[in-house]
Amino acid sequence: MSWLKILGAVIVGALLLTVGILLGHFAIPKGGNGSGAPSWVQTVGRDLNESLLQSFMDQVESEKIRENLKALASQPHMATTKGDEELVKLLLRRWQDPQIGLDSTSEDVYGAFLSFPDPQRPNSVAVGVPGGGIKIFTTRRSEKNVTADQAHADVVQPYAAYAPPGNPRGRLIYANQGKRSDYQELFNMGINLNGTIAITRYGGTGRADKAVNGAEFGVAGVVVYTDPADINDRRASEEETYPNSWYMPPSGVERGSYNGYFGDLLTPYYPAKEFTYRIKESEIQGIPPIPTQPIGFEDAQTLICNLSGHKAPASWQGSLGCSYHVGPGFRTGGLFPNTSDVQVNVHNQRVIKNSSNVMGFIRGSEEPDRYVLYGNHRDSWVHGAIDPSSGTAVMLEITRVLGKMLKEGKWRPRRSIIFGSWGAEEFGLIGSTEYTEEFYSKLRERSVAYINVDISVFGERPFVLPALLRSCCTIPISAFTAGDGKLCSPPRDVSHSRPSPLPGPESLTPLHPPYSLGSLGAGSDYASFIHYLGITSMDIAYTYDRNKTSARIYPAYHTAFDTFDYADRFIDPGFTSHQAVARTAGNVLLRLADSLVLPLNVSDYGEKLDELYSAAAQGDFLDKLNANNLSLGTDPLKAAIDRFKSVAADFNQRITKLKKEESPSPLQIRMVNDQIMLLERAFLNPQAFPNKYYYSHVIWASKSSDQATFPGLADAYTNALETGDWDQVRKHLTIVVQAVESAASTLEAVA
Amino acid sequence: MSWLKILGAVIVGALLLTVGILLGHFAIPKGGNGSGAPSWVQTVGRDLNESLLQSFMDQVESEKIRENLKALASQPHMATTKGDEELVKLLLRRWQDPQIGLDSTSEDVYGAFLSFPDPQRPNSVAVGVPGGGIKIFTTRRSEKNVTADQAHADVVQPYAAYAPPGNPRGRLIYANQGKRSDYQELFNMGINLNGTIAITRYGGTGRADKAVNGAEFGVAGVVVYTDPADINDRRASEEETYPNSWYMPPSGVERGSYNGYFGDLLTPYYPAKEFTYRIKESEIQGIPPIPTQPIGFEDAQTLICNLSGHKAPASWQGSLGCSYHVGPGFRTGGLFPNTSDVQVNVHNQRVIKNSSNVMGFIRGSEEPDRYVLYGNHRDSWVHGAIDPSSGTAVMLEITRVLGKMLKEGKWRPRRSIIFGSWGAEEFGLIGSTEYTEEFYSKLRERSVAYINVDISVFGERPFVLPALLRSCCTIPISAFTAGDGKLCSPPRDVSHSRPSPLPGPESLTPLHPPYSLGSLGAGSDYASFIHYLGITSMDIAYTYDRNKTSARIYPAYHTAFDTFDYADRFIDPGFTSHQAVARTAGNVLLRLADSLVLPLNVSDYGEKLDELYSAAAQGDFLDKLNANNLSLGTDPLKAAIDRFKSVAADFNQRITKLKKEESPSPLQIRMVNDQIMLLERAFLNPQAFPNKYYYSHVIWASKSSDQATFPGLADAYTNALETGDWDQVRKHLTIVVQAVESAASTLEAVA
Asked: A89, A437, A575, A730: which one has the fewest Cβ atoms less than 10 Å from its Cβ?
């Protein structure tokens, strides 16, 4: 071989080696095993897969939701009853299904303090001869059966849960909505309320307050009914009501829990386990101190339309077809002799019973220690087709589709997802509250958001705007369309009519556009998540068009008429509204679970703060502050809010920049996500409201005042007007400033 | 060319190409820019660099610490005085130095509620003719100057901070340590305490309690002194004391804050900013209700050795060189006529003054949103060489070496480091507490640990074990050697003699080996970090060999003798103890900031829980529980602790496994680190101790009971023995079970 050939061979060899090195280095990606970049480099930065999301949406079927609802509402399933226990099994079966189930499930049991009527001795309201035992009128034991699917041996008779047993007897008065001001007005008319029985209508105040307020004036027993003016758009006849329309029939009675707090009443702040310390029943606050019983408007008419005394004020009049008088006692010439007494017979029994939460889990692939929570209660008062089964039917359809994708290996969320079917909500959000108590620390540290879908669809078609979805979140999801509507940001029209045993739907403020953050109140299971744990929460439903109905709530609410037939024929024939809710809620859930950067817009909190501030910085409110040396013109509250808004804008810019990076560091992403997640927590102050169990969120806490500013400030202000205690106003200004500054510090660039 | 040759060339060529590909793929690491794995893949998993740590240790110089101390203790620097303000500037100058400074600094100012004597009208304790103004004896205005560096115009006269002004006059009694039981014993002797002046010695109870307890018995004024038996190993003469030894001279007076809580007294739970709501002075709890004044033992001898009345019990006797009698009034034949009264003259003034925290920051490279905190207070009572400047001198040496490494580009920590020079600690941990109040949310969410080095070296050489380091942490750092001793796990011998205005050194329980976790109490600035925020805390110092001295604390504590000369000649000639403390504290700091997996051992909490449980599960304690239907034999507390231990063991196994992985996912590492970090938070319960400001840590809260179990349980038990209120015992059992279950849930495998 010549040297030239050797040289040529060496050059060719060197070239081949070089090409090989280059190919090896640049053309072949390093695998995860052995040397080279580890496998997680590929997955750790994965973002939401939009086509997978679309596939989820496509798979959500209205017919499946209808089937779910039929199964769920097939029999009464009041908390801890046989019907409830059977649904526990149904949930576990579905979530453990090898084809469509979740990763794992659990059943968490709490010993809940409940209250039931005595099946042997039905409650009643009776009119009798004074001093004697002869009853000349007694209210119905329960609703009339107007459809076949309504009849069942386990239909619980109407009662006021937690009202004490007793048989008070006295002259009847009509006390409007049982507000303190209503009783005061009767007192001002010169009526001696001592020993009377007050008949009141639902609305205006929480259920329990009607008895709590009455007792303060000496009232001995309370009767509650639903006026057709408040629920039926004034329709009162059988022809105009269910099964001929969605309106409440004359025999319909709204059951409910008569308590002013939420969570198990004997174990505030601690999970109601067997070992848990329980307070004495006498220490429970906010439940009726006197016997109380709800009745239908048919029976209410018999009582109210026969009352004597002054004519009731115009705003107290309703649609029972007569002029309302206030009593006391019955009029001459009416159905009852003028001297007749009314007796309230309550035989309720309080008992600790085991109530279950059914929990389902999907493990997150990249951030298993971040939780997206989704829940609804399982227990109803009777068949509960709408409340709560319309929500459970939607949840089961969501888990069916997700479970299928999971089991087929097509999907695993970035973050963990926890589904909760809560027990004993109707008695005061017990299951969800006990859950937050038991797992307080880890939920507080790890939860990204809680999604609640209780009543999915509030109104029948003519009464809802087709595109209307109920708002919503404590931090809004960045605008996106879902189903057939836009969610949360900005809502087109939102109303706040979610009924609630606490504090009652009418005390919730309606929202008006433009409005970015909705006040959730405490009407469903999100209450302890937002108020106690400071977890961003949302409640999703179709709601009403308030131009078309004035009903407080869908008319079959908490009655024996809330059946599958009612849902299928009136609320949502075809179940397309349910389908839209399922798609929307599932969409929100997937975005929260899978998005690389959490899809929550922190800036909208700035607007909310501005709005709450404005309410305090004008008119009488500001004048009174100034007059008491609490000048709000050059104030630290304004400065704190301005700082928050500026810091939030910077934060959004940093996120935009981060999203543009080709491959941002997973710890950088985690950092901004933690800032978003923990923003809500920065508004918590466990010292802010020492007299209100659980409420510690400075922006969203409940308030009694009708001032539209920060709740603690509003209540302190209203109180100071009466008592002159302006120190508490200053204290609550400090609390708000501190919370807003904390929130700003949370979003500020770290270190 | 033959086919053979061609084949050979092809084979060789293919081999070369293959070798090239293999080399290119495996032998040459992919760069971070352009194609291939992103740059953070290399840095995100970086662990502590041991040789860098060694280099840090090597650079820590004893002489630099000595120089720091000389500068820091050159003049008195009581909170908010000129001397303090000059140290603020010194700190800022050092931390802003271009060669040895930190990334950034800030000065945070709070309006602190303080208390000072009136320079125009010195406080005193005087003996006078009854009814007249003639004084026949008056206590010294301040300490005698025994060395040159002690003299300074700004030496504050001894006083009891927060004691109210007044001039009560009455007959003197000796009340031992001023415990409630001491006054009770005097009362039992038949002495009418009404209107008397009580002289008491330091120890046995918190400073303020001596007056609080006395006032309950009608005492009108309180005098406090340090008995040579308690501080000087009984040495009392000038020859035996400083400047001839480390013992307190006869004129020495321990100053101090007389308050029972910590943090700014007018703004509990809120930072003392200008806008902050302040409670009324009359609402402050835990400060002396009657004039109180500390004096030296020379003056105390004049008063006590002339008392009449019963001879004091043996345990009340001290080392003033006479037999102590209890009074009331002086004996015939003594220095004072039997009828002489004692008058306590206090002219203290309460005032809100601006006090600064100086903060220094080093930004973390990978996890900037995780904080390792390190701090000490800056303010002293007089020159404060030991308390607190020995700690500040150490901190400045640590920041010098770290700052140098940082500025030279040799090092940046994985996590952020925050240094704090706290203001107004001596008045009740004010600066550190206000800091935790202002930044509550982000500190709670992001802080890995807080390291406190206040008094670095407690005793002079003969009195400390050279290898002894004071314990320590609420979660122990996994065993490692540092300086010349082992830290925390397991400590060889640890004593708990850190003095404290709250609740007083003697009420702290000494620790005995084997003991893994120490109870920090509330004696220095770690208090709000551990008790309020639930941040793992530690306090590092050389402490005593209790076989060699019985001194409550180093004898110059809070006196005018706590000077550089005292430190240089007696406490630590050569400053090698200081050096060891600096190396140890810096070592802990670097390990916490740089270790990939946090070097905290969660399992040791299991031992602590066992120990607290054992104290409740035996003897009288258990018998009483059983007698009151609180059986602890088959109990949920045992089950919860067992679950915790099992979960902690599993957790450690997962960590071991994770550490063995070649390149674990950064989010997996972050997950376990968050579990370690948040374990301490799981023990918080803001509802547990409603009457104790800030205390919310169920394991480490303060207690009054001497039962060695969980603090809330111990106090409830002791109270139940008196009142029969066993419900509170059950409640605190629930609180403990819930906290332990929460802690277990935090460590449990996620999802």
From this structure: A89
- Interchain contact, A23 vs B19, CB within 8 Å: no
- Catalogue the long-range contacts made by A146-153 (C-beta closer than 8 Å, 24 or more residues apart): A146/A242, A146/A243, A146/A249, A146/A561, A147/A243, A147/A561, A147/A563, A147/A565, A147/A566, A149/A383, A149/A563, A149/A564, A149/A565, A150/A383, A150/A560, A150/A561, A150/A563, A150/A565, A152/A75, A152/A76, A152/A383
Half-sphere exposure of B148 (CA within 13 A, CB side): 0
Chain B residues close to A26, C-beta within 8 Å? 24, 35-36
Residue of chain B minimizing CA distance to A103: B751
How far is A186 from chain B, CA to nearest CA, in Å?
A: 41
Q: In the predicted model, what is the mean pLDDT of residues B159-186?
A: 97
In B, which residues are within 8 Å of A745 by CB distance?
439, 441-442
Do the Cβ atoms of A381 and A211 come closer than 8 Å?
no
How close does chain A come to B9, measured CA to CA in Å? 8
Question: In A, which residues are within 8 Å of B625 by CB distance?
Answer: none
Considering only CB atoms, B368 lies closest to which of A41, A364, A751, namely: A751
Q: Which of A242-246, A314-318, A543-547, B417-421 has the lowest mean pLDDT?
A: A543-547
Residues 6+ apart with CB under 8 A from B542: B456, B457, B458, B459, B464, B468, B469, B470, B577, B580, B581
Closest CA of chain B from A26, distance in Å: 8
CA distance B642 to chain A (A): 16
Residue B543 confidence (pLDDT) above 90: no
| Structural domains for chain A | 50-112+351-594 (3.40.630.10), 118-347 (3.50.30.30), 604-747 (1.20.930.40)
Instruction: Say what the pLDDT of residue B3 is.
Output: 64
A460 among known catalytic residues = no
CA dist A405 and A392 (Å) reads 20
Contact list in A for residue B686 (CB cut-off 8 A) is 686-687
Taking alpha carbons only, the member of A654, A670, A41 closest to residue A370 is A670
Q: How is A276-297 classified by DSSP, letter by letter? A: S----GGG--SS-SS-EEEE-H
**Are B30 and A25 in contact (CB < 8 Å)?**
yes
- Encoded amino acid at A718, one letter: T
Lowest mean pLDDT among A438-452, A707-721, B11-25: B11-25
Mean pLDDT of the B641-650 span: 97
To the nearest 10 degrees (0 to 180), the angle between helices B726-747 and B666-682 is 170
Residue-wise pLDDT tens digits, B50-85:
999 999 999 999 999 999 999 999 999 999 999 999
With an 8 Å Cβ cutoff, are A439 and B35 in contact? Answer: no
Contact predicate A716/A729, CB 8 Å? yes
- Residues of B designated as active site: 425
Q: Provide the residue count of chain B.
A: 751
Contact assignment for B738 to A28 by CB distance below 8 Å: no
